[in-house]
């Protein structure tokens, strides 16, 4: 739990925007230090669980390293292997898809086994032409 989260209230506008969104994207940010504090706010997780829009996350971990910041270090400290697979597991209860970097293409089957769609970066599409 994050200090003050029990007393914090999400913006009603934010909750309405999630409810009425066409698509919800969780950007490549630290799941533990940036996204989890938002998810800990009363009602946010519920509105995501009930969202009709697809919820897509962009993995902040590529080839075992964080794009920026301490996400990979935190994963190691929590005894998880830093990977896009762990990011998918972290958001599993409400996620529909994950954007995966081509460097992590070998992880695709593990992520798809969680019943998520996998979107690949543009380099994969260029390779298919």
SSE diagram, text form:
Elements: H1 12-20, E1 24-26, H2 31-39, H3 44-49, E2 55-58, E3 61-62, E4 65-66, H4 71-77, H5 84-90, E5 97-100, H6 108-112, E6 117-120, H7 122-127
**Can you count the helices?**
7
Helix content: 25-40%
Main sheet overview: 4 strands, parallel
Low-confidence blocks of residues: 124-129
Mean pLDDT: 88
Distance between the termini: 47 Å
The percent range for strand residues is 5-15%
- Given helix and strand content, the structural type is alpha/beta
| Net shape | globular
Strand order of the largest sheet: 1-2-5-6
N-to-C SSE string, H for helix and E for strand: HEHHEEEHHEHEH
Task: Walk me through this protein's architecture.
The model is unreliable at 124-129 (pLDDT under 50). Helix content is 38%, strand content 15%. It is α/β, with parallel strands linked by helices. The strands form 2 sheets. Strands 1-2-5-6 form a 4-stranded parallel sheet. The chain has a two-stranded antiparallel sheet with strand order 3-4. The chain is globular. The protein has helices spanning 12-20, 31-39, 44-49, 71-77, 84-90, 108-112, 122-127; strands at residues 24-26, 55-58, 61-62, 65-66, 97-100, 117-120. It has 7 helices and 6 strands; from the N terminus they run H-E-H-H-E-E-E-H-H-E-H-E-H. It starts with 11 loop residues before the first helix and ends with a helix.
